Structure to design on (102 residues):
């Protein structure tokens, strides 16, 4: 499965980056392809392209705040996740989110 994701948290530092790494690790373990955009204290890093979004089967938003550019995913299936949950147990939370797709 091709996935694009956005991670963000209130301060835009630790949880933003840690949840991005957790998503990447879990997706790899499940055999999925993922690209993660980080919306942190430094602004938007690793911004998703229109082509990546178009090709994606799924969008994951791991944020406890609003994210910029959410309208880009208007016609996509979107899963919302808590960044803290992903940090605590990335694979478990990833599998739970995927199970809710069906």
């Amino acid at each position: 499965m091709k996935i694009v994701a956005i991670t963000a948290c209130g301060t835009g530092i630790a949880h933003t980056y840690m949840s991005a790494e957790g998503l990447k690790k879990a997706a790899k373990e499940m055999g999925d392809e993922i690209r993660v955009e980080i919306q942190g204290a430094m602004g938007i890093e690793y911004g998703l392209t229109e082509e990546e979004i178009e090709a994606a089967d799924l969008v994951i938003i791991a944020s406890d705040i609003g994210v910029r550019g959410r309208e880009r995913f208007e016609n996509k299936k979107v899963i919302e996740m808590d960044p803290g949950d992903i940090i605590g147990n990335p694979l478990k939370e990833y599998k739970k989110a995927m199970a809710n797709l069906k």
